[in-house]
Amino acid sequence: MYLIVGLGNPERKYEGTRHNVGFEAIDTLAKHFSIDINQREQKGIVGKGMINGHKVILAKPMTYMNLSGECVQPLVDYYQVDPETELVVISDDVSLSTGNIRVRKKGSAGGHNGLKNIIARLDSNVFPRIRVGVGECENGDMVAHVLGRYSAEDREKVDASFDKVIGAVELFLEGDIDAAMNKYNVKEKID
């Protein structure tokens, strides 16, 4: 069983913001693979189904971004998921150009409070993650940036990035995260 978690904030006012790109990625995966996300479990909303013959749980923590680990860690424990090989966390990344993705096997939180809380709750930073670029903060107000909405041009780039997320998840489920990293990681930082 694999657990794929997208990070975001639960209230309607956060829909479409940069910080909620993880939720959007989960919604895209759910639609693409016909998985209903409608069950409440462990402070989150989850859906169970199959992706290319693999049992998966898609999850969106309803704890708000900074407390994402309060959902992720109990799900990991309950379903006996190995964080190193059976968990993927999808989040936004302000150090990547809008629409690019970066796949990692492990790593620091990189200043991302949702990842920081998951790392603290799991007591480990060794879990795969897919970071979706939402562009650099240009005005110095990081909170306003991540809680802001995309321009029409950036919206198109982010929507297109979900095909990359689907491809990366498929490779991860086949046990080939290295191939996902080689195919989808970009060298550039910000445009």
UniProtKB/TrEMBL annotation:
InterPro entries found in the cross-reference section: Pept_tRNA_hydro, Pept_tRNA_hydro_CS, Pept_tRNA_hydro_sf
Subcellular location: Cytoplasm
Biological processes, Gene Ontology terms: protein quality control for misfolded or incompletely synthesized proteins; rescue of stalled ribosome
Residues under site feature: Stabilizes the basic form of H active site to accept a proton: 92
Quaternary assembly: Monomer.
Function per UniProt: Catalyzes the release of premature peptidyl moieties from peptidyl-tRNA molecules trapped in stalled 50S ribosomal subunits, and thus maintains levels of free tRNAs and 50S ribosomes. Hydrolyzes ribosome-free peptidyl-tRNAs (with 1 or more amino acids incorporated), which drop off the ribosome during protein synthesis, or as a result of ribosome stalling.
Protein name, as recorded: Peptidyl-tRNA hydrolase
Organismal lineage: Bacteria, Bacillati, Bacillota, Clostridia, Lachnospirales
Gene designation: pth
